[in-house]
Design brief:
Chain lengths: 314, 305, 379
């Protein structure tokens, strides 16, 4: 390219086209031509081979029985087995209790807190960072923290002493109490998420809408019922789905706190699955449990979306 | 102008506020509601933070003061030696930390890169059958699948490939785990980059790939950092896959190591607290660094782990 | 010497055709404007030349080289985007110098050229600023700078003035024109603003619905629109169109045969002999408005007047026919008044009501148009 430094006689360089036919240039152009596939293939490949393919295999496993000599196709026998498996049925009840109570309390507590904070608190505050902490901690660490608090003669026994007269509650060793202790841990961890999400949602209710409602003479209660709630509807559904789906697959907390005990009082589905598969080496029945859990999650999530008639991701 | 409209108001020009409204107004004037709100917030923060404080202070106590009745609220005679003792009594913990660091760093780099590339492609290109719309959606939906569902087949597949008890296996699983999130998060950032910038860069002499690296990536740096930090935290914390896919010490990560403190009949309280504190320190550090993106990410409900 | 040629270029997105049958030649150094309403395909046409959109069929040549499938980076084309597309993470200097940096031009020469370009655009003091701190007009100049620093073979501009306010638009318009003349670079410029197009272009390419409607000088497209679309699109306020019946020079509006009933000049009648129905096109400027009853005039009632300073725009209704008229502000009329409109009948256009094509011999039009344009202004 000739250098032409005289600005008065700026003339276009002679048009230059793809005269470069070096292999590097060729390769670069080839990459550009196929970029749309080259950029997506790694992600799609990994997700296919490590998510969808195992999913299909899980379906296959759930129709097989594992014998020392190899596998046998048994059709739906594993599923039939599940229906009469006391431990599994118990784990369904335990999971339902866990999910129902934990998510219910988290939602009510979190929504109430978000409402209290709304408008009176600086939008971005240190408090938001601080309440993140339980959410980002490893469930393992959380399990250990609460094991420490639930320890005999530990902090929670001390706090409860006025009610119990000093006797140890046996927070995670007493059959009637253990599940509630695990639930309390989950509530501790996830209520902040509900607060954060719903607070952000409340903050995003446009002022002019509620001001217009004020001008129309709506009372506080009416504004809440007619403006705020409908505005938050999709967000409420989203947070409930996230929490439901997440609570259904709870594992680490239970694994650390109680291992499903005492006497299966905290034996949630994932725990039962883990034991069936890796303690009793019954991959067939464990896979049937896994598939059932997946179906349960799908039904729950989809019916939720349908009930609220909101679209995801919007 | 011919039709005269009735312009008189149909109600009183001023309505007396109701009793409740009046009480609320009075409270606001005196600042009592504000005090109430801050009181509630303070209570909530104590409830949220105290357990973490309790763990961290436990690392400075002795076996006696740890479970004393009444509790020792502030560790008076700080036992910093507890930290050295953990590594003396459980030297393998160093290996666990090394393993976790390797797995976390590699996973973060790989997952963020792969996720960002896919997200960019979905935002930029048109795919047949509307895949650019559907694929990201399916990718995200895998996040809602309980991971335990695939764990048995993964265990069997990995056993076949000799990937059980290897860091490579864990990295592979965690990459799979984090890609959906990276795609979804980066997608939002790429959508903010005007298409004309990429076109301009191509006209200025870049290939499309060159424009992606030189122009687009620098612009979405905040997204890359946020996505990397999320990936780091999730990977560092993960227990389920680690327990099942890495049972021998050459591949044990910190969460599995932590879990081992409670498998015995007697819990090693002090060592456990020290190890847990070491495990949570980097998470807190990263979270603090990315606090704004974290608040935003969680607030959008984008994260569910 | 760079000429551009489109040969039956077509771009379709599935079933939807964005552009079709695009045949266009741009001479070296020519300033060509692609003009049309939004969605007419003008930007697609431009993007095909840039290489940002790949044509479905047809060829595009630059100076005889077929570049239809050449990567944009290898076309030596510069482009200014509507939103300027400046790299937000770079300074002004880095933005302007970026094409040279990509081309591996040495730092020293790069700096020289940046300084030169900044001088030309009168922005040397902005060089070390961040893009975020620039006003719209300043960003526009940086975008121009980045485009010209490479001395491109062809200069493409996609609505470069659309994001500027009215005043800045006019000053940037003349700057672009001067720059283009000085650099003598073949330029294709997309706009939907016909006023901008008329004032800038050597050649106007009027497009609609993916097809080129007319190619010509600003004068040609204004005075000899080939069809009703071009006639209506060019000129402000828009041309009036009236469905009329015609016999022997007698013109009657179909919706208001009594109010709109005029006889045309003999010279004009010849053009429309053999046509008994047509769409009559009259520019608002080619009516003369009278407040007293006038012979051979359209009788109408004033609906609204919009003063514009020296002129006023008068909306009138002749029966069911609404007409827009531009009149001197000295005419005193107001809503409800009855007025009489006479036609500059050499300047009316007739269009086929079915196809929208113009009726009449264009050659003859040129003569009558030129001859009467001075006479028309006296009435």
């Amino acid at each position: 390219m000739a250098t032409d430094t005289d600005s008065e006689t700026v003339t276009p360089d002679v048009a230059q086209f793809s005269t470069d036919t070096s292999s590097r240039e060729e390769a670069l152009l080839w990459v550009d031509d196929h970029l749309k596939w080259l950029m997506t293939i790694p992600a799609v490949l990994i997700l296919f081979s490590l998510t969808f393919y195992p999913l299909l295999r899980a379906l296959q496993f759930s129709t097989q029985s594992y014998l020392p000599t190899g596998t046998v196709f048994v059709g739906v026998e594993n599923y039939v087995q599940l229906l009469s498996d006391g431990a599994f049925l118990n784990s369904l009840v335990v999971t339902a209790k866990f999910v129902g109570i934990a998510v219910g309390v988290e939602f009510i507590l979190g929504f109430a807190m978000a409402l209290v904070l709304n408008k009176k608190i600086k939008v971005r505050g240190l408090w938001q960072t601080l309440i993140l902490i339980p959410m980002i901690l490893s469930p393992t660490v959380i399990g250990l923290i609460w094991r420490l608090m639930y320890a005999p003669n530990g902090l929670l026994d001390f706090i409860a002493a006025p009610l119990t007269g000093g006797a140890n509650v046996g927070w995670i060793s007493e059959t009637s109490v253990a599940l509630y202790s695990v639930i309390l841990t989950d509530i501790w961890q996830w209520t902040p998420l509900v607060v954060l999400v719903l607070f952000a949602g409340l903050q995003s209710v446009p002022d002019d809408i509620s001001e217009a409602a004020v001008m129309d003479g709506a009372s506080r209660r009416q504004r809440f019922m007619h403006i705020t709630l409908p505005y938050l509807k999709s967000l409420i559904v989203l947070i409930l789905i996230i929490r439901l789906v997440d609570a259904l697959r709870v594992f680490a907390k239970v694994f650390i706190l109680t291992r499903g005990g005492p006497s299966d009082a905290t034996n949630v589905i994932s725990m039962e699955m883990y034991r069936t598969a890796f303690r009793f080496n019954n991959f067939g029945e464990a896979s049937a449990m896994a598939v059932s859990l997946l179906v349960l999650v799908l039904i729950l999530a989809m019916s939720f979306v349908n009930i609220a008639n909101v679209e995801f991701g919007s | 102008m011919t039709t005269k409209q009735d312009t008189s108001v149909d109600a009183m020009p001023y309505t007396e506020p109701s009793g409740l409204e009046k009480i609320h107004e009075r409270l606001t004037e005196t600042g009592l509601t504000k005090a109430g709100v801050y009181g509630a917030l303070a209570l909530f923060l104590v409830w949220t933070l105290f357990p973490v404080y309790w763990l961290v202070t436990a690392t400075l106590k002795t076996r006696e003061t740890l479970l004393s009745f009444p509790p020792q609220w502030i560790p008076l005679d700080a036992q910093f030696g507890n930290y050295a003792r953990l590594f003396a009594e459980r030297p393998e913990f160093v290996t666990f930390i090394t393993n976790s660091v390797i797995v976390t760093v590699v996973t973060t780099i790989v997952a963020t890169t792969i996720g960002a590339m896919a997200a960019y492609a979905f935002v930029t290109f048109d795919y047949p059958y509307n895949l650019d719309f559907h694929l990201p959606f399916y990718i995200l939906s895998t996040r809602f699948m309980p991971p335990i569902v695939t764990i048995i087949p993964l265990f069997v597949i990995f056993r076949g490939f000799g990937l059980v008890n290897t860091l490579r296996g864990l990295i592979l699983v965690y990459t799979m785990f984090n890609i959906p999130f990276a795609v979804w998060m980066m997608k939002g950032f790429f959508e903010e980059v005007p298409e004309s910038l990429i076109e301009s860069a191509m006209i200025d002499g870049h290939t499309h790939l060159g424009a992606f690296f030189k122009i687009v990536l620098p612009l979405v740096k905040p997204g890359l950092i946020a996505s990397a930090i999320f990936t780091t935290i999730i990977t560092w914390n993960e227990l389920l896959f680690a327990v099942i896919l890495a049972q021998s010490s050459q591949a044990i990560t910190v969460p599995v190591g932590l879990a081992s403190f409670v498998t015995k009949f007697s819990v090693q309280w002090i060592n456990m607290s020290v190890a847990a504190t070491i495990a949570l320190a980097p998470v807190l550090l990263f979270a603090f660094m990315a606090r704004q993106q974290l608040v935003r990410g969680f607030s959008m409900g984008a994260v569910g782990k | 010497m760079v000429t551009v040629e489109y040969e039956s270029v077509k771009k379709a997105y599935g079933e939807t055709i964005a552009i079709e049958d695009i045949d266009l030649e741009v001479d070296d150094g020519e300033f060509t404007i692609l003009l049309g309403p939004s969605g007419c395909g003008k930007t697609t046409t431009l993007r095909c030349l840039a290489g940002l959109t790949e044509p479905t069929s047809g060829t595009i040549t630059l100076d005889g080289h077929d570049v239809t499938n050449v990567h944009p980076k290898n076309r030596n084309i510069a482009m200014v985007f509507q939103n300027f597309a400046l790299y937000p993470h770079m300074t002004v200097r880095e933005n302007i110098g970026y094409p040279l940096k990509v081309a591996d031009v040495g730092k020293e020469e790069r700096e020289n050229r940046i300084e030169q370009v900044a001088e030309t655009l009168e922005i040397p003091e902005l060089l070390d600023r961040d893009i975020a701190n620039l006003s719209g007009g300043q960003q526009q100049r940086v975008a121009l700078g980045r485009a010209i620093i490479r001395r491109p073979a062809v200069f493409l501009m996609d609505e470069p003035l659309a994001n500027l306010d009215a005043k800045l638009k006019i000053s940037m318009r003349s700057r672009i024109k001067v720059l283009q003349r000085e650099m003598d670079i073949t330029t294709l410029y997309v706009t939907h603003d016909q006023e901008e197009a008329m004032s800038l272009g050597d050649k106007l390419v009027v497009m609609d619905k993916g097809h080129i409607q007319q190619i010509g000088t600003p004068d040609e497209v204004y005075h000899q629109p080939v069809n009703q679309f071009v006639a209506g699109f060019i000129g402000s306020p828009s041309m009036n169109f009236v469905e009329v019946s015609h016999s022997d020079g007698q013109i009657q509006a179909e919706n208001a045969p009594e109010d709109f009933d005029v006889t045309l000049d003999d010279a004009v009648v010849k053009r429309y002999s053999g046509t008994d129905e047509m769409t009559l096109g009259v520019r608002p400027q080619y009516f003369s408005i009278h407040t007293e009853e006038t012979a051979n005039a359209v009788e109408a009632e004033v609906e609204v007047t919009e003063p514009q300073g020296d002129e006023q725009i008068v909306e009138v209704a002749a029966g069911d026919v609404s007409l827009t008229v531009v009149a001197p502000s000295t005419i005193d009329t107001t809503r409800g008044d009855t007025v009489w409109l006479t036609l500059e009948d050499e300047l009316v256009h007739g269009f086929d009501p079915e196809t929208g094509d113009r009726i009449g011999d264009p050659e003859e039009m040129v003569a009558t148009t030129r001859a009467s344009s001075s006479a028309g202004s006296q009435s």
